[in-house]
Every structure is written in C-alpha cells, then in structure tokens.
Amino acid sequence: MASTSAKSFHIRSTSFPSKSHPNLARVQECLHLVKAWEACPSRKAQLVTRLGHLKDLYASVNAFLQLPLTQQALCGKESLVMELMEDFLCLMDACGLVKDSLQQTREQHQSLRSMLRRGDSGLEAGICAYQCSRKRMKKEMGKCLRLVSSVEKHASSSGDNLDVVDQVFKDVRAATVSTFSLLSLFISGRKATRSIFSRLLSSKIHDAEGDEDCVGEIERADLAIFRMQGLSSKTARKEDAQEAQREMQALDLKLGETEVELEDLLRCMIQAKVSLLNIVTGC
C-alpha cells in the first residue's frame, strides 16, 4: 500500500506546467531578453539594461514557483531544490559584494570631487586612499568570481536531456553567472580572459561606431585620478582636474543607476529563495 502511494506521488510530481503556461512563457521571454543582450554587439546595450532584464527574470521565476504544479513537481526533485537554494545564496552573496563595491566607489569619488572643488591640500592622501580602496575592491571581485564559478559548475554539469523545470533553472543560473562575472570585471577595470564570459566584453575601449566599452569607463576614471598623483590640488593642471571631475561624475551617474537595479534584483532573488524554502518545508 505504501509503495503504491509513493508511486502515485512520484507520478504527480512529474506533472510540470506546460510550455504554453503564461508563467512559464514569461520566464522564457525574460531569458530570451537576457540572451539577446549578450548577443548585441553594440556597447549601447548598457549594463543597467541587462540588470533590469535579470530582475524581471527572477520576478517571473518567483511567480513560476508559486504555481501548485511547479511546487508539486519540485517536491519530487529535492536534490535540485537544495542545490538551487545553495546556488541562489552564492549568487546573492555575489550581488552584495558588487553592490557594496559600487557604493564604495561612488563614496570615494564624491570625496575626491569635493577635494578638487575646495582646493584641498589633502588631495594626495585622498588619491592614495582611493588607490588602496580600488585594490581591496579588486580582491573582493576576485571573491565574487569564485562564487559565481562554483554556481557555473552546477549549471554546466547538467546533461542535455533535461525536463522543462531543470532547463529553466539551468538557464537562470547561467544568465546570473554571466551577469555577475561581467560586473566583477567592470568594477575591477579588467578585460575578460578567454572564458565563457569573454564574449560579453569588447576588446576595445571604443568600437567602430564610437560606443563605449563598459570596462573602459572605470579604467578612464582611474587613469584621470591617478594622473594627478604626486600633485597638490593647487598645482594639478586645471585640465587634468576638470577631466577627473568629468570622468567621475559621468561614471557615478551610471554606477548609481546600476546600484538601484542591483538592490531591486537582490530583493527578487531573496523572494525566489524564500519560495524554494517554502517548497522544501511543504513537501
């Protein structure tokens, strides 16, 4: 009798939402937008747009997880759910590291811009502090890359013959991994090496149309700041000071937009993880 009951439960657990279900269709639509961003050769496709697509993806995933059929199906996939919860936690940690680094960069820029406006004699010390801060950020972004690399191994280890639910979460993890890898490289001011993420980055600061490479933006701000190193705010060339102000101001506007999107994305990721936890406790 017990085996019959277990067997019938297993059969119910494989009743996934059909591919035409609106919630699943929305998830796949959001995945398509993320992949379309990756394929876009123009640097006009801003990172903030990519984060907006990823935020919408997690919101749609959370709605997908609310479906009774999805919850019933995942009750028969305890190992997948536990792996997803672990991966989501790593990705949330990566999101937090990126968000904190962006905030620190903006704070450092604000301090330097204030020194330049006031003609502060402590400019040299401020630049040294910024340099130390940038080194710490690069270490933090190395940690971020290690976190997403551990998630990437889970996503890439999945086979080719996956059911609908498995494939959805494989694609969601892959999209998140590539996004945070790109952000880590952006903050570090480095080019991508030959890896699965290298297709996301242009090898040039300017392409044929004059679009800006996102990694080049933070590099240019760093160069403009470090060009004034060894000079006081009074002896720094007016042109150099103006350029540094201009680069920092332009970059900080984009960093502020990115930070807002990251906060929204983190909330959506937390909601999805809570939904997975509720499924585990409800099984």
TrEMBL record:
Record keyword Coiled coil present: yes
InterPro entries the record matches: BPS1_pln (IPR004320)
Ranges in a coiled coil: 234-261
Keyword Coiled coil (UniProt): yes
Gene Ontology biological process terms in this record: root development; shoot system development
Keywords: Coiled coil
Signal sequence bounds: none
Protein name as it appears in the record: DUF241 domain-containing protein
Species of origin: Nymphaea colorata
